[in-house]
Structure formats: C-alpha cells, structure tokens
Design a protein that fits this description.
rod-shaped, mainly alpha, 75 residues, 2 helices
Length: 75
C-alpha cells in the first residue's frame, strides 16, 4: 500500500512525464506545421509551372498547320 508521500512522489513523476511528452508533441507539431507550409509552397510553385507549361504548349499547338488527311483538308 502506498504511503501519502510515495503516492505524491509517483504522481509528481507521472506529471513530469506527461509534461515532457506534451513538450515533445508540441515540438513535433511545430515541425510538422513548418514542413506542411514548405510542401504547400512547393506545390503552389509546381502548379504555376505546370500552368505556364500548358500555356506554352497550347501556343505551340496553335501554330501547327492542320493535320494532313484531316476532314478539313479533304473538303
């Protein structure tokens, strides 16, 4: 059976452990938020690059002559 002193010491130790875990979780959470912000910024940059590439490709395709043998050239 626990004495009041040993019970208090055990509870204090458990509280210290919980506080340490909370601090570690907060650190991990902050790191994950930073990683998420970085990935979101990279994603935005890649989406912009894809949009620009799509516009350049559309411009090149618009300059190509009609396909030989298509219905328009046969008329």
């Amino acid at each position: 059976m626990d004495t009041p002193q040993s019970l208090t010491e055990r509870l204090a130790w458990q509280i210290d452990q919980l506080l340490a875990r909370l601090a570690a979780a907060e650190t991990d959470n902050q790191q994950l938020r930073q990683q998420l912000a970085t990935v979101n910024a990279e994603n935005h940059t890649l989406q912009e690059r894809m949009h620009q590439a799509r516009e350049r490709l559309d411009a090149v395709l618009a300059q190509l002559p009609p396909e030989i043998g298509s219905e328009e050239t046969q008329k």
